[in-house]
What we know:
The structure is a single chain. The protein has helices at residues 41-48, 69-75, 85-88, 150-162, 183-194, and strands at 8-14, 19-26, 31-35, 52-57, 80-84, 97-99, 104-107, 110-116, 125-129, 132-136, 139-140, 143-144, 172-175, 181-182. The protein is an alpha/beta fold. The protein has a single domain (8-194), classed as Metallo-beta-lactamase, Chain A (4-Layer Sandwich). The strands form three sheets. A six-stranded mixed β-sheet has the order 1-2-3-4-5-6. Bound molecules: zinc ion (ZN) (2 copies).
Amino acid sequence: MQPSNLIRLIKLEVGEYSNNCYVLIDPSTNISAIIDAAADPDAIMEALEGTSLALIVTTHRHQDHWGALERIKNQFPDASVAAHSKDAASLPLTPDIFLEHGDTLQVGSIPLRVIFTPGHTEGSICLVSGSLLFTGDTLFPGGPGHSDSPESLKTEINSIVTHLYKLDPDIDVLPGHGVATTIFESKLEYAKFASKEHDEDLHGDVVWSKS
Length: 211
Ligand SMILES: [Zn+2]
Ligand SMILES: [Zn+2]
């Protein structure tokens, strides 16, 4: 994982599903943001120490990605909670900001652009800032996130190919669980998948190289 020149990035692995909670800090202002307040609020608050929390973004509605959201919001009531409207109803509190594709959030001087990537859930989003792409459960090393139906998989792949694979190949892909990859690596893996025929019913935990 290459740290961006602009952002100070802290990755925490929290909860029983080993979720990645990312804390972003703008060194020039000490303003911070959280991507997926997944679990373990104490560990997250420790990572936030000395910063001013402005924003908590939730990538999608699955509970393992927002287990600490309420605790953190109670502790930092001035921080804005942001999510896509299509997944917002499942969150434990109403977001202050409903995100749309192309929106740009600010973490101090650092812009964070919203990419709407439905498929894993109806309201899944990714976030890009400089050389860092936060993909939630939409894209992992080796394949897309879980899909509940063949239609969802098609939607998810369309989101990935249309939006994520148009980004700079050097960008680091930082998923909601596990290790990072790059757009370059992911596109190579996908090219193998796309060159083969697939069962119409394909969905679930799809792996680019095995399907
Ligand atoms: Zn999920
Ligand atoms: Zn997840």
